[in-house]
Design brief:
10-stranded antiparallel sheet, 300 residues, 35% strand, single chain
Length: 300
């Protein structure tokens, strides 16, 4: 192995575990909060006035796209048919309006499964005192075959015989159920949330270039719907210790409606407080789940 072809050199030319995904300072401004309110169509009094944290606080996932802010540093070259596969968040303290947050990131895993190449990127958000506010991991999947063309996913795929369709039902042992509002995700909302240059999350022509006949609603929009549901249900306990781990199992297409739902499975003691554990998901009008996973939050 030559000096120019050492293992370290080969890894540096590729997206691998340890690939740095950049650092940046992000201002948590009232304008950023208002963008979230309008783009996600979710508001809360604590975003604009007094809160238990001593002033206005940003939505827990106002930086929903933290790992994606530097995607050019870790996305694979073949972006045809790429899809968001998984995401998890750990929340430790709120992002206060008027503060500055510092984001850093690194690739923590890469693996092949069936016909797809998966990359896992982690980001941390720290406040001006260096304290950890949140940690998130996202998994993006890329087609392993660079020669593949044609439509990658059609509308209605989840109802094919090889993908059995079962409406979601809350089991009888659930302690209680929660739900967010129903959202009809219009083309206008896709532009607000995934705006800027045309892309497959807001433009049908761009979607077709990547193997989709229609606009693919950005996965983090539905993840924000889930976070907002947890915010309404748990308040402070979501910002101060909330956790969520999600699998994006079916595509939400522009023009479809979706609703965040959850069932409380158990309550367990955690020091002087309690933590409630939930199954959570987002569901289309016909019962199809688009995201499924678990979440938890602190309660008194």
């Amino acid at each position: 192995m030559t000096a120019t072809d050492t293992l370290a050199a080969r890894l540096a030319r590729d997206v691998q575990v340890g690939t740095d995904t950049g650092d940046e300072a992000i201002a948590i401004t009232p304008e950023l909060v208002q963008w979230y309110v309008e783009a996600v169509e979710a508001d809360h009094p604590w975003y604009h006035g007094d809160s238990p944290f001593g002033g206005p606080v940003a939505p827990a996932l106002v930086l929903h796209n933290a790992p994606y802010r530097s995607l050019n540093l870790w996305y694979l070259p073949n972006r045809y048919g790429n899809l968001h596969a998984k995401m998890q968040w750990e929340l430790f303290r709120p992002l206060m309006v008027g503060s500055t947050v510092f984001r850093s990131g690194v690739v923590v895993d890469r693996y092949l499964r069936r016909d797809r190449d998966f990359v896992v990127a982690e980001s941390e958000l720290r406040d001006e005192q260096g304290r950890l506010c949140a940690r998130t991991r996202t998994t993006q999947s890329f087609l392993a075959d660079p020669e593949r063309t044609g439509i990658v996913v059609e509308r209605g795929r989840e109802q094919r015989r090889d993908r059995p369709f079962q409406p979601a039902e809350a089991p009888s042992e659930a302690l209680r159920s929660i739900a967010g509002p129903r959202h009809l995700v219009t083309a206008e909302q896709c532009h607000r949330f995934s705006g800027g240059r045309p892309n497959y999350h807001n433009d049908a022509a761009e979607a077709e270039k990547l193997g989709f006949r229609e606009v693919v609603v950005q996965g983090t929009l539905s993840i924000c719907f889930l976070s907002d549901m947890m915010t309404e249900a748990y308040g402070e306990g979501w910002w101060l210790g909330g956790r969520i781990q999600l699998n994006l199992v079916n595509i939400l297409w522009a023009g479809e409606a979706v609703q965040a739902k959850g069932i409380v499975r158990e309550r367990v003691r955690e020091g002087s407080v309690w933590r409630e554990h939930l199954d959570v998901w987002t569901e289309k009008d016909d019962g199809t789940r688009t995201i499924a996973g678990t979440a938890s939050a602190i309660v008194a």
